[in-house]
Specification:
By secondary structure, the chain is α/β, with parallel strands linked by helices. It contains 11 helices and 17 strands. The protein has an 8-stranded mixed β-sheet, sandwiched between helices. The two termini are 30 Å apart. The structure holds adenosine-5'-diphosphate (ADP) and the ligand N[C@@H](CCC(=O)OP(=O)(O)O)C(=O)O. The ligand N[C@@H](CCC(=O)OP(=O)(O)O)C(=O)O binds next to helix 3 and strand 6.
């Protein structure tokens, strides 16, 4: 067995994500029999001592039939109305289903804003930790009814990858209606299953497509991006069919396993790189790009050529190269109003009370 599969089989804490296409059918809504089978697999794993956080899609799909809506709506307001109805049905079905195993569920609804704001992030971390310590199974979804276009995750694969880091998971299991990653969209005919992904070269050149069910959102594109985010931060990932949940959560001999990168980023650096929204942008000259990216140095005023946006000391900002490409993110130590007078100055020219790094190396995360 590969290292990733061994790690997933031994994981003490796992985030399991299940997609709409595996739980709901257009027209019929929530498929309780399929949900029960998934819950049985999770309960078996919990019985062996593992802790599971379940990220479940399906609210919009489950809300269509009760509202007499045929297909998945395109406009945000109707999606939100469907999610409002469907989330209640989903939560109820999980409470009933886990109840068959004497397990209690707790509902956690998150927006991407909760990942951006550090206080929200910490608070969510505490809630998960208490729920798990109390023996409950947290059931997570995006808080669809309040999420506006700007603050939406939009796809739960990304939410699951961020949640895996937030709860300190040892593994992420993505369950869908497809049983593995293939070298092309399986709907297009003959394709080969990719059992192990150990690096970028394993996925170079494969063709990934969007959702086939009309219920899911991101298709394989968002699953690959989520797998890369989690694996890149030290969490092994298994992609498998929800119908194979028992085996995916058992000996892990199915699906596609993504090997974890060796070093797990600290929660803070992960948050900076992946989750934080930015308040503005600093434009860097070539020398500064080399210093902060190549030599992991702090960013000094001398290497800044421009400042965009309004921000305060302590906010997260983008760092862009001379071509305008964002190459890093960091916590800025000055208000945007202070910086124009300082940019381009050498340290000895900066007034003594302002003589500090603009972004300290410890607060700076390269994005490549
Ligand atoms: N290279 C690929 N390998 C596997 N599946 C793919 C690939 N490209 C596209 N897909 C499609 O992605 C779909 C899964 O995405 P989606 O419907 O969004 O699932 P979910 O609702 O579980 O998030 C599959 O049904 C499959 O048709
Ligand atoms: N929050 C939405 C799910 C959005 C989503 O990412 O769906 P999917 O691609 O099926 O995982 C819902 O519950 O319907």
């Amino acid at each position: 067995m590969s290292d990733a599969r061994t790690a997933i089989a031994a994981a003490g804490r796992i985030v399991v994500k299940v997609g709409s296409s595996a739980l709901t059918t257009a027209g019929d809504g929530l498929d309780v029999a399929r949900l029960d089978r998934l819950v049985d697999a999770i309960a078996s794993r919990v019985a062996t001592g593992s802790q599971i956080v379940l990220v479940s899609s399906g609210a919009i799909g489950a809300g269509l039939a009760p509202l007499a809506l045929g297909a998945r709506p395109r406009d945000l307001a109707t999606q939100q109305a469907a999610a409002s109805v469907g989330q209640l049905a989903l939560a109820h079905a999980y409470a009933e289903s886990f109840g068959r195993h004497a397990l209690t569920v707790g509902q956690v609804l998150l927006t991407s804003d909760d990942m951006v704001r550090r206080a929200h992030y910490r608070n969510a971390q505490r809630t998960f930790s208490r729920l798990l310590a109390l023996g409950a199974v947290p059931v997570v979804n995006e808080n669809d009814t309040v999420a506006t276009e700007e603050i939406r995750f939009g796809d739960n694969d990304r939410l699951a990858a961020l949640a895996a880091h937030l709860v300190g998971a040892d593994a992420l299991v993505l369950l869908s209606d497809v049983d593995a990653l293939y070298d092309g969209d399986p709907r297009d005919g003959a394709t080969r299953r990719i059992a192990e992904v150990t690096g970028q070269s394993d996925v170079d050149g494969i063709s990934v497509g969007m959702s086939s069910s009309g219920l899911g959102t991101g298709g394989m594109v968002s699953k690959l991006a989520a797998a890369r985010t989690a694996a890149g931060s030290g969490i092994p990932v298994l992609l498998a069919a929800a119908a194979d949940a028992a085996r995916a959560l058992g000996p892990a001999d199915v699906g596609t396993a993504f090997a974890a990168a060796p070093a797990r980023l600290s929660a803070r650096r992960f948050w900076l790189g992946h989750a934080a929204g930015t308040a503005g942008r600093l434009r860097l000259d070539e020398g500064a790009v080399t210093a902060v990216m190549g030599r992991r140095r702090s960013l000094l005023a001398a290497g800044i050529t421009g400042v965009d946006g309004e921000f305060h000391a302590g906010d997260v900002v983008d760092l862009a190269d001379p071509a305008g490409t964002v190459v890093a993110r960091g916590v800025v130590a000055f208000d945007s109003a202070e910086l124009p007078a300082l940019i381009g100055l050498s340290s000895h020219e900066v007034p003594a009370e302002q003589r500090r790094e603009v972004v300290h190396a410890d607060d700076l995360v390269p994005l490549h």
